[in-house]
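User: I'm writing a tutorial on reading structure tokens. Could you give me a worked example: one chain, its sequence, then its tokens, then a sentence or two explaining what the tokens reveal?
Assistant: Sure. Here is the example chain.
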Amino acid sequence: MTHDDRGLKGLNNPDYPIPEELQSTIAVTSLDRIYNWTRAKSMWPLLFGLACCAIEMIATAASRYDLSRFGMEVMRASPRQADLLIVSGTVTKKMIVPIVRIYNQMPEPKYVLAMGACASGGGPFKEGYNVVSGIDTFIPVDVYVPGCPPTPQALMHGFLTLQKKIESQSLRTVPWYRSGESEAIPVPILGPDIIDPRQADLIRRHAEQAAASRDTTTPAPTEA
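And here are its predicted structure tokens:
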């Protein structure tokens, strides 16, 4: 078989022809493999250090661990130039507002890595009055790296896990390759507490039910 025959024509044996409905699948699968390989080996992480996990993230980016082996050497400080958001540290309710804004500013395809126990689920401050118990309640997370804080080896394992996820994706199913614009995540509203606009209807119904229950349990005033 010559080099020019190594396409669908070369794979389509006349004795065992490839059905027409599968020929497009083979073409897309080959395209997926090339496209995903280039994306997985050229990730541009966005630094978003918040607490002690950021120190371990900075150490991972130093020369000792050599992230360039995995194609992640370039760290960016602008969401417009990054496709991997690394949230490392404790996320307060004030901080989740700019995190959602930064996530919306990142171009597709984009991924999120929650580094450490605080970013993954709240950590030792879980259910605190000013702490978000996991950033996955507001933005989608692709990889969780446990630890308090995780070691550089654990963070590199998270990078490799994300690369495997990227290499297994297909252009047929990923949402960012479909026609139309992807919807931005509503920015949380910071008031007496953090409010997710996506739950506004649920909060309104609960408020109405609470008001109705108070009206039925409050006794009517008696006349003097």
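What the tokens reveal: Residues 20-40 form the longest helix (21 residues). The radius of gyration is 24 Å.
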